[in-house]
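Long-time lurker. I teach an intro course on protein structure, and each term I like to show students one example going from raw sequence to a predicted 3D structure in token notation. This year I'd like something fresh instead of my usual example. Would anyone be willing to generate the tokens for the chain below so I can use it in lecture? Attribution to the forum is fine with me.
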Amino acid sequence: MGYRIQTLNNISLRGLDRLPRDRYEVASAIAEPHAILVRSADMHALDLPSSVLAVGRAGAGTNNVPVAALSKRGIPVFNAPGANANAVKELVIAGLFLAARNIVQAWDFARGLTGDDKTIDEATEKGKKNFVGCELPGRTLGVIGLGAIGVEVANAAERLGMKVIGYDPQITVQRAWQLSSSIEQALSLDDLFARSQFVSVHVPLAEATRGLVNASRIRLMPKGGVILNFSRAPIVEDGATLAALDAGQLQAYVCDFPKNGLLGHPRVVALPHLGASTGEAEENCAVMVADTLRDFLENGNIRHCVNFPDASLPRVAGAARIAVANSNVPNMVGQISTVLASAGLNIAELLNKSRGELAYTLIDAEGAVDAALLDRIRSIEGVLSARLL
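-- Reply from a regular --
Happy to contribute to a lecture. Here you go:
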């Protein structure tokens, strides 16, 4: 079977090359696509055709993708967690230096110097006292969110001689193994803010994280603290941050999100969303999402998905594979098995995984599976989608 992939942004050719041209047609304008590949394009207003089986986001965040609406249709949304981790980590570390040594403010001062060299030398010696900074070793960095990026940031800061404390109640075993043993665990967010001169946020944007950095938490920080935000703009309350900068409670705010109010403030460094803007990161993201998308389309396996559970099942030779997305309610597997049994099909292998309100089932069945049988599975209350591979 051939698959049609629609791209909504320019996707790295290294990633697209993972989709063999004898089986995949890839274009920005394509009728009845089986999958969508996207980077930053806003999909919320798009009317996706019924042919769409999956969406792949060549990056980590999925705020530009209508995940909830797609979930109701049984459509998995894939992303590329960790593929851009090194790129973001490097920019966060750069942000630490920018803030600690007042580099941007000092550069602006130097660029404004005029006169002959003697005049500039005199002005330099007189003005440099306004940009005295601090050194990072011995300072404490609090890292909120210990996923792929947070772990990289924490480990890199520790190697710079900083004391690092982290907070992530949902840290995975994989990330915990990657974390340096010297990283301390904060007891709570308030504990982290109270103990950190620098705070860097690395959590996805959700209702629970919106405004996570706010006035009450900033007040807990030692005077002259620094906030770094290379995650999502609304995680930090701009008004509270600006007020703290003006009051001297904060010394700097370094972020990746220029906005009115932040621009022009002397203690704000706002970069133009450069976190993942490296050639290497774009290639890594495209390769990861293309690989996971292909495995889903061809084998029904799910990895690196933001709405459905991870589910990978080796295929049984000669068996027909059925992939079913459904609501996570009792007796779904029993009802699907009954439909297969009534058609005289034997189940050679079965995998059922759940995640919150959603579940996913892979079945390798021995025998012929026709359209009528798939329709019977789709008619089960709670089934969101079903397809034969």
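Some talking points for your students: DSSP finds 13 helices and 16 strands in the chain. Residues 85-270 form a domain with the Rossmann fold fold (CATH 3.40.50.720).
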